[in-house]
Prior knowledge:
Largest sheet: 6 strands, parallel
Distance between the termini: 45 Å
Helix content: 40-55%
Strand order of the largest sheet: 7-6-8-9-5-10
Strand content: 5-15%
Order of helices and strands: HHHHHEHHEEEHHHEHEHHEHEHEHEHEHE
Amino acid sequence: MGNQQNENLIDGVVFEKCPVPLKEMIVLASQKxxxxxxxxxxxxxxxxxxxxxxKTILPxxxxxxxxxxxxxxxxxxxxDPRILKILKxxxxxxxxxxxxALLKEVNNDKLVSVISNQTDQYLPLIIVTRDNKNxxxxxxxxxxxxxxxxxxGKFFSKSVGIKLKANQKLLDEIYTQSPIFNNNKSPRNYNxxxxxxxxxxxxxxxxxxxxxxxxxxTFTLTGILRLLLRCGISISEIALAAPTAKAANRMNDSxxxxxxxxxxxxxxDLLLLELKSTTIHRLLGLTEYNRESKFSEVYPMPIxxxxxxxxxxxxxxxxxxLLSSVDHRNTNIILIGDKDQLPSVDSGAVLADLISGNKxxxxxxxxxxxxxxxxxxxxxxxxKNKTKGQPIQIKSFKNxxxxxxxxxxxxxxx
Length: 414
């Protein structure tokens, strides 16, 4: 009777295919973790390859790893108290001791069909030790992360990329003499944060421009592109891309709208109307059937500047493929995005990690917003700070009329 009730909680085929000793665990995992049926079947395949793992904590770790990947993580910290708590919730009473026992078996090559601590062995799972902590990876995630770190290391070297110089005359032309205009026909001035980002684009081979909605990221990008053309970069040497067609089209529209407001645009400015953004996949020639970029380090993209918008959506694997497709010695990268806005499609919060690491001092922060004001802005900041233990205050209203009559509240509960 108990087994029948458990079976009703998850897919019947999953329950039927599950090894008997793991049935209770997978029921709890289906309730506590963000896992799919395919994750369970992958686990069962591993159990067939190496039946000895059934008696270890590895099946639980495997499912927790998949769950964490769905939230953007690329690996599982086996020393993390939060992970240990999750393991207790899915039927592992003493996870610390069981992990210790698993590590001993791995060290003694007892489970060499599926897992190893040697990264040069192509097995499904890898345990990597860093700073006296043990991390569980899927082999493909470890390979992509290792490769991406190597690519980033090349860009963060001071001797790579193209270095440009802009005299004050060129900057003044962008800032004041030939400005972009607002809808009300008044000049739209760059603030100090935006000017810093524009000038940093000439000095850094790898630049991140980050800011929330309404901080002028695309407005700043338009200034960067205008300056690059004035510094000798040709329009054919610039590529614009985004993770989705919608984001690519939005970047095209925003740049075009900005240029069209300039009262006396130069020839360089008008050339920007011909510059079209595309999706990253189309830029690299990636399709459902072809996961290999048409470019490589040997035959890189023939460009000098690559701009990626909505970069928070780029996962570990796509970023690795992207950076492997350019010549780090002669190409500058500009990533634009808000780490708090759109998550990556697959595992790996690359933009957020790059910003928090700030390895190259190549991050320009846009913090002044021109779109949200007053209590709405306070509400947005409250949401961003939720992980810092700060409460979010939302005023309650009896009806919608009372809400609309309140002059101070942009957000409310009805």
